[in-house]
Amino acid sequence: MRRREGDGCPVWGALQVVGDKWTMLIVRDLVAGARRTTELLAGLHPISSRTLMDRLRDMEHDRLIERRDFGGSPPHVEYTLTERGRLLAPLLDSLRALGDALG
Fold first, then answer.
1. What span, in angstroms and rounded, lies between the C-alpha atoms of 23 and 30?
2. How confident is the model at residue 4 (pLDDT cuts 50, 70, 90)?
């Protein structure tokens, strides 16, 4: 995701981090615990693997998730929410409640 300079508004800054199509859906899947890339792909269908990897890199850069590489063949990589990423859980709950109310 491209980052742009804001005007100092905290809402603008937060939207720069979570305002794309997939970030909050990735958070939704990681709130339950660590997930492998293939698990995230399956849960986020129809996201492409390239888009997922781009979002995961952005989220790691923003310190929302942590990537753990366990090595092995095939490679075993898991993603988990950081403490900063877990701050998004109440926002996720609010979005879920809104979705239920609008549904």
1. 11
2. low
Sheet holding 65-69, edge to edge: 35-36, 77-81, 65-69
Angle at 72 between CA 54 and CA 69, to 5 degrees: 40
Helices (H), 2-88: 10-18, 23-30, 37-43, 49-61, 83-86
Q: What is the pTM of this model?
A: 0.88
Identify the pLDDT of residue 1: 42
Residue 2 structure tokens: 């491209």
Q: Is there a contact between 81 and 73 (Cβ–Cβ < 8 Å)?
A: no
